[in-house]
């Protein structure tokens, strides 16, 4: 297996935009953002912004408060004018992670420096992201709906909960975090671990932890 910097696609994407759905606590902390359809290098009419907007039709049934988790799900529109500049907030970080996992850019082409410091630490459960504060009370409320499973406590979520790229095999979903880039034909074994900004540029088997910025292929 060779390890090297993969050749960059031409042209390298410079902008990104997407409508999404954010999970926000009542004090305004962003727990996550899901962007199902991401666009790169399409005209952006404003400088980098994040704002609430009317929900797209497919989000209408998902928008609103979740009293058990103590959060609200709100529609957002996020635009990034320069993917080479450092991220500015949680909406910005999540869009960059989606760009990578949707294979719209290779690791190294999107600046995610400082993203861990920007994002909140989250309790990732089978009912969705929850705030760490008073989680035992949240667990008690959720338990009325059924067993509560905590997948992890971390700043980054599992990639496959947000993006499932075609043509890949992932043995354990907890081994690949959002922001990893998996080329078609990649197999991720139970011994691997992929952070944001790591991954594959060709069809390979990944069977170990990749170091930050490392790309196989």
From TrEMBL:
Documented EC number(s): 2.3.1.117
Give GO terms: molecular function aspect only. Answer: 2,3,4,5-tetrahydropyridine-2,6-dicarboxylate N-succinyltransferase activity
Q: Which positions fall inside the 2,3,4,5-tetrahydropyridine-2,6-dicarboxylate N-succinyltransferase middle domain?
A: 119-158
Q: What domain of life?
A: Bacteria
Q: Which organism is it from?
A: Corynebacterium guangdongense
For this protein, the record's InterPro entries field holds: THDPS_M (IPR032784), THDPS_M_sf (IPR038361), Trimer_LpxA-like_sf (IPR011004)
Q: What is this protein called?
A: 2,3,4,5-tetrahydropyridine-2-carboxylate N-succinyltransferase
Q: What class of enzyme is it?
A: transferase
Gene3D superfamilies per the record? Answer: 3.30.70.2010, Hexapeptide repeat proteins (2.160.10.10), Trimeric LpxA-like enzymes (3.30.60.70)
Question: Keywords in UniProt for this one?
Answer: Acyltransferase, Transferase
């Amino acid at each position: 297996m060779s390890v090297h910097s993969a050749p960059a696609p031409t042209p390298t994407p410079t902008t990104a935009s997407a409508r999404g759905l954010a999970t926000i606590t009542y004090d305004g902390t962003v727990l996550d953002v899901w962007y199902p359809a991401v666009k790169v290098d399409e005209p952006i009419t404003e400088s980098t912004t994040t704002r609430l907007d009317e929900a797209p039709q497919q989000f209408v049934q998902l928008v609103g408060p979740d009293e058990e988790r103590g959060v609200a799900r709100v529609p957002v529109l996020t635009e990034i004018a320069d993917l080479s500049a450092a991220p500015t907030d949680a909406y910005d970080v999540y869009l960059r992670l989606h760009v990578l996992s949707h294979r719209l850019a290779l690791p190294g082409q999107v600046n995610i420096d400082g993203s861990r410091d920007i994002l909140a630490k989250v309790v990732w459960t089978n009912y969705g992201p929850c705030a760490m504060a008073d989680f035992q009370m949240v667990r008690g409320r959720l338990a009325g709906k059924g067993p509560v499973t905590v997948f992890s406590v971390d700043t980054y979520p599992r990639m496959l909960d947000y993006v499932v790229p075609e043509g890949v095999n992932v043995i354990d979903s907890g081994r690949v975090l959002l922001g990893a880039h998996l080329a078609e034909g990649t197999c991720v074994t139970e011994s691997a671990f992929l952070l944001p900004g790591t991954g594959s540029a060709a069809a390979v088997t990944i069977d170990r932890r990749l170091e930050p910025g490392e790309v196989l292929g």
